[in-house]
């Protein structure tokens, strides 16, 4: 994506002319999909490999790359970062606009109430794409839906309304006025950048990324962030959730703020009590109460769905369709490895206990009572099942406890070094991204699975998706005190005022964000 030519310029006409000269008029009209024309110069087209090569060889073409799908990187956290309950404010703060590029927003959430908010800043040039009973207000000042091609799969809807929860969660964390770019395809992400820059946002927050690193010329997030930077806008993006392997970071452009995820001073523990009075502490966010107390306890490897062609080599992991419904219904099932527990819920299990040797430094929510144990404790539960004629267990409701080691970079957070430019260190900083409570879409269940009966206004989830908007909100706060600062100055302020605690590994947490 290049700069817009100066003077009068018709992007669509230029792009169609380029296509016609290269692949012919008829083919050009069939292949062209969309032109970027508000903030930078580029277009989307359906091309064969041969046509792609021809276009790439033209003078003035910077890069040609496929539109691939990106993944979403999924309270006390602001207090933990050092913000007081009544933080010092500047009048200019209400003029700072944060653009969220994500999966949408649930406008009815109390987090987006515009009480005491004035009219949108006069610099705002965006609009509100009203549909599906979606309306903006003085906090959500704009919203736009993007979908370049292909079918819209339920529960998604052609609207800025969030049907999944991720976008509402990140937006309520950043707590800014919003322009919303929804969807995860490269073509749509670039369209959202194009609009956000032209609409006058001050900070862009994007909690999505690729599955693998890309070079700067073919990474749409790096390209969009570059043009944002040229227009005085800082882009804050999530580092990725592929840790703890080295060089696993996926958003690392030098001109953006790359944010890792760290813990805060709380964690959620879920006790498993066996019929022999032994108790083991696992991790999960379990809001369920097992009304009948203890339930029969079975091991997934002992209850395979043989009628469906499965044996214990598969059922031990409790994967989809591998468990025998007749043997699992009404029981608590022990599973090897960590999974989403949906297969156990689908066949009527009362609960599930999972175990392996992965990390237990963050908690998941599951569609039924569940707890995740380390391998040693899981093996003890396994031995109890095999050594008892009628094993039973219960799973208690989660309790919140103090995390005395916090903050530390969580296991799933993608690490550096920068896989493309080794001498530019990435990530830039870390922010709270573990067990974060924020707004959720009421169009979805708490876990996203239909078996889950819980619909909530707020949800607790983890990811660099959650840490990124913390940094975005901090950047917006700095911008409100220093409206003339460049993206580099804001980024530098956040990085150089962070605190490194040498008693703990990998710690960099913003400590002071007050500037004059």
From TrEMBL:
Residues 151-170 are annotated as: Disordered. Gene3D superfamilies: 3.50.30.30, Peptidase S8 propeptide/proteinase inhibitor I9, Peptidase S8/S53 domain. InterPro entries: Peptidase_S8/S53_dom, Peptidase_S8/S53_dom_sf, Peptidase_S8_Ser-AS, Peptidase_S8_subtilisin-rel, Peptidases_S8_3, S8pro/Inhibitor_I9, S8pro/Inhibitor_I9_sf, SBT. It comes from the Eukaryota. CDD domains: PA_subtilisin_like, Peptidases_S8_3. Keywords: Hydrolase, Protease, Serine protease, Signal. Residues 10-73 form the Inhibitor I9 domain. One of its GO terms (biological process) is proteolysis. Pfam families: Inhibitor_I9, Peptidase_S8. The active site is at residues 102, 166, 465. One of its GO terms (molecular function) is serine-type endopeptidase activity. Residues 94-498 form the Peptidase S8/S53 domain. Belongs to the peptidase S8 family. This is Cucumisin. It comes from Sesamum calycinum.
